[in-house]
Design a protein that fits this description.
The complex is a heterodimer. Chain A is an all-alpha fold. Chain A has 2 helices and no strands. The chains are: A mainly alpha, B mainly alpha.
């Protein structure tokens, strides 16, 4: 079980949140939005890989 | 066995706490985190039960013709796991209509899977009744 994967996503979430707050406080709302979008895309790519892995494993195991 | 179970439960609880912390600030990353935690946990569980399913399959193979029905039930189990995962995720995201559609898709798949064994049973019954 790859627990590090979950921690990695949580860390990205926290870092993106902090960056977002910093950029909003310094009056750069557009860059804050781009940062949160970039974080979301990175996390989405990681999650898609994990789910593809899961589905292919289930397919192989149950002979679907 | 208990050690693995406790490990899985610990991972689930830790993920839940992390989601609880992240979701109010960044809802979308909280959702992704819950999706990733679900995928990781189910992958771990599959690796846990894989050898036991192989054992069972080997035992059914020895039984001969009946192993075909075991394969069908195993496929139905796989379909229901995958469908349940997708439907639960949709429900977590607040999309219960899409969750119902995912469940319906799984039901269709299992129905298609079950048609040929049902036809076999029906033919056997008809042969037995002499019709």
């Amino acid at each position: 079980m790859d627990v590090n994967f979950i921690f990695k996503i949580a860390a990205i979430g926290i870092i993106v949140t902090v960056l977002n707050q910093l950029l909003i406080r310094s009056g750069r709302e557009d860059q804050a939005m781009l940062t949160s979008l970039a974080g979301l895309i990175v996390v989405l790519l990681m999650v898609v890989t994990a789910i593809a892995d899961l589905f292919s494993t289930v397919k192989r195991l149950f002979g679907l | 066995m208990t050690a693995t179970l406790v490990k899985v439960l610990a991972v689930i609880l830790i993920s839940a706490v992390m989601i609880l912390y992240i979701a109010p600030q960044k809802a979308e990353i909280g959702f992704m985190l819950s999706l990733a935690a679900g995928a990781v946990v189910i992958l771990g569980l599959i690796n846990w039960i894989l050898p036991h399913i192989s054992n069972l399959e080997a035992a059914f193979k020895k039984a001969g013709g009946i192993s075909r029905y075991f394969t069908v039930s195993l496929k139905a189990l796989g379909i229901s796991y995958v469908t349940g995962f997708a439907a639960d995720t949709c429900r977590d995201f607040g999309q219960s209509a899409l969750a119902a559609k995912a469940e319906f898709a799984g039901k269709c798949a299992i129905f298609i899977l079950c048609v040929s064994p049902a036809v076999n049973v029906l033919e056997a019954a008809l042969k037995f009744a002499g019709i």
